[in-house]
Each structure stands twice: as structure tokens, then as C-alpha cells.
TrEMBL record:
Belongs to the cation transport ATPase (P-type) (TC 3.A.3) family. Type IB subfamily. Signal peptide: none annotated. It comes from Kibdelosporangium phytohabitans. It is found in: Cell membrane. This is Cation-transporting P-type ATPase B. The chain holds residues 405 to 697 of 746 of the full protein.
Amino acid sequence: ATPTALLVGTGRGAQLGILIKGPEVLESTRRIDTVVLDKTGTVTTGQMSLVDIHVAGGVADEEALRLAGALENASEHPIARAIATAAIDELGDLPDVEDFKNLEGLGVQGVVEGKAVVAGRTALLADWSQQLPAELAEAKAAAEKDGKTAVAVGWDGRARAVLVVADTVKPTSAEAVRKLRALGLEPVLLTGDNAAVAKAIAAEAGIDEVIAEVLPKDKVDVISGLQADGRVVAMVGDGVNDAAALAQADLGLAMGTGTDVAIEASDLTLVRGDLLAAVDAIRLARRTLGTIK
Ligand code: ADP
Ligand code: MG
């Protein structure tokens, strides 16, 4: 490789808003055939908002929002921010939380107003032997079919509410997915979210292959699994959750709008916060390699 060509590549990269960690990175783009895309914050904006509250058993909406809001106010997760912000807007000050625990990729738990409260995936409630009553299960299914995330909330040993949180697909994601395909790359959506939500979001972005309900610690195994199948994998992500997977991928691309941990673990940083920057990065890398050959 001639150093000049590599320098041109990285210089042009900077112009396009792509920061390349080292010239050797370009080499790995040659054989990439699969691009794994994290859902939240990568394909979607990650700016979630609370759009609906469903309650069961005579619980008031306000109580569900107050208890869940207090709990989520202790978490940085985009879902938590949406619920806590809505609760503060609606109710003002929220009660204190004791014994708070963040359960990675599942939800949160703690004691609020003397009640043991849990909020998150239904799997989390199942651990507490709590089951969604029929009316809440229906609300959850309807929300998920629509690509929205249903957060189950339980306290005092019972599932009592479902809070519906919506994210939006970035306006450029579908175009970027088309362009990845045109480059001969197969896009795959990877998420910890429910399979129904993931499928709805994938359909909106034009992605056929979906890997859902993956715990944060297992994302890295999904990447090595694809590699074991003979695929050469680029991964685009933004979260703390994505760091190990970004490092495992043959090429890791971090959203510049994402967390420092993700940026550090990756080979490329996309300063622009959209997927078209990933397309530009792969194109640029290939073109630069072309001039070296
Ligand atoms: P993603 O892969 O989309 O970035 P995560 O792995 O962070 O998502 O979370 C997976 C799922 O766990 C979420 O879709 C949500 O259902 C649940 N979850 C995680 N954290 C929270 C939280 N603080 N409150 C409610 N639900 C949560
Ligand atoms: Mg994420």
C-alpha cells in the first residue's frame, strides 16, 4: 500500500465526517458481505417518547406513571428517559427510589413509596412470577405490531400497567439500506427489543434479516456466530451495549452521536449521525483500496 493513497483516503474521510482510526482499517472493508445494524440510536433516532398508558385492575394512569417514572429517572436508557421525562412533565417532582437496580437489557427495579416496583420486558416480570392480565397483553401485542416498545410495570406482586414508548426510524435509514444492498452487502437488524417491534422497524427500513431479543452481553456472540458461518461482518452501533460487538466485528463503525465507549471500540467513527455516513465510509474505503492496488 502506498502511504499517499491511504492519506488521501483518511483526508477525504475527514471531509465526509468519517474518522478512521488507522489506515489498516481500510483493508478489512474489502471482504465485508454483511452489515449488522443496531436498532436503537442507529437505524432509529433513539429519541423515544411515551405515547400511551394502559392500566389494569383499577390502577390510575397517574400512579403507574409516577412509580415507573420515579424508577426510570435513575436510568440513562432511552426508554427510561422517555418515561421519566413524561412523568416529570405531567406530575412535577417524582418520589425517591431505594434499592435501585438496573438490569441490563431487561429493565429496572427498586422500591418506590414502599412498593417493590419493576419496569421492563415481560421476561423481567415473569422472573417475579407476574403475568400480564389479558387486557394488558392485548395492548402490548398491538403496540409491538406497530413497531412500538411496550414496557410492563408491576408492583406489589402484580403486573399493573403497560407504558408504550415510540421511536422513529431516521429519515435516511431506508435509503442507506438500499445503498448497502447495491454495494452487495446484506443488512441485518440486531436488537435487544422484542421480535415483533424489531420486525416492524426492519420492514420500515427495508431490512429482511432480523436478530431480536439479544441481551447486551450476547451481542458479541451474534457477531462471532455470523463470522463462524463464514460471513465477514461490519457492525454499526452507538451504545455502551454495542462496544464488545463493535470490537468483534471485522469492521466496527460507531455513530459519532453515540457513547464514548462505542467510539473507542470501533475502527471508524461516523461524525454524521445517520446511516448514509456508513455507506460513504465503506464506499470511500473501497475506492481508496482501488487506487492502492
Ligand atoms: P437495544 O438493543 O434496542 O439498544 P437494549 O438491549 O438496551 O435495547 O434493551 C432491550 C430491551 O430491554 C428494551 O427494548 C426494553 O424492552 C428493555 N429495557 C431495557 N432497559 C429498560 C429500561 N430502563 N426500562 C424499560 N425497559 C427496558
Ligand atoms: Mg442501542
